[in-house]
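Q: Sequence in, structure out?
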Amino acid sequence: MASEPRSASTDRPQNHEPKPAEKPQAANPQTADEPQEAMITWLGEPGGEDDAVNTWNGYTFEKGKAVKVNNPRMIADAKTNRQYKVA
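A: Exactly. Output:
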């Protein structure tokens, strides 16, 4: 005698209990653990124009001079940009 296949839904009892509420996520997970303040230095553009000043998100950077920045997203972006040094 061949037995008929049983469906997965009848093999075990169903659990209809509600799932616990999840903790809210940070608005931007990339910046959740980033420092709130850092010193960023603009190193200039390699092989580009030799400008002495650069403006980014309202911050003015003089080439080679550190600027205190308290924007976590900007700090994260500067860490991956070779034209800036983050300390």
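The chain has two helices and five strands.
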